[in-house]
Amino acid sequence: xxxxxxxxxxxxxxxLEVPVDEEAxxxxxxxxxxxxxxxxxxxxxxxxxxxxxxxxxxxxxxxKDLGEFQNCVQKLKRVSSQMGFDIAGTEEGYLLVTxxxxxxxx
Length: 106
Description:
Helix content is 40%, strand content 18%. It is of the alpha+beta class. The protein has one domain (27-106): SepF-like protein (Translation Initiation Factor IF3), CATH 3.30.110.
């Protein structure tokens, strides 16, 4: 009995080194898109949720229908606020919208 007690009371610890596969990091995509009308906001939101940075051309919609453009910008601002996205406009007629993991330096 003493022999069995000695065998079971001995703590055997083995160290096993498991190789860790580092996840392949998904590259951040920068998408250049054109904002044509209000319907495009849904597509742009999906791109941002997928982790893309979106550079929007807005000059055409600004020239065609300023009211529609303002509605689009308001919707993008609301969505950005809810989802943690960041949004900024340029004088050249572009909007830059980034996902929650990045911020725009102003």
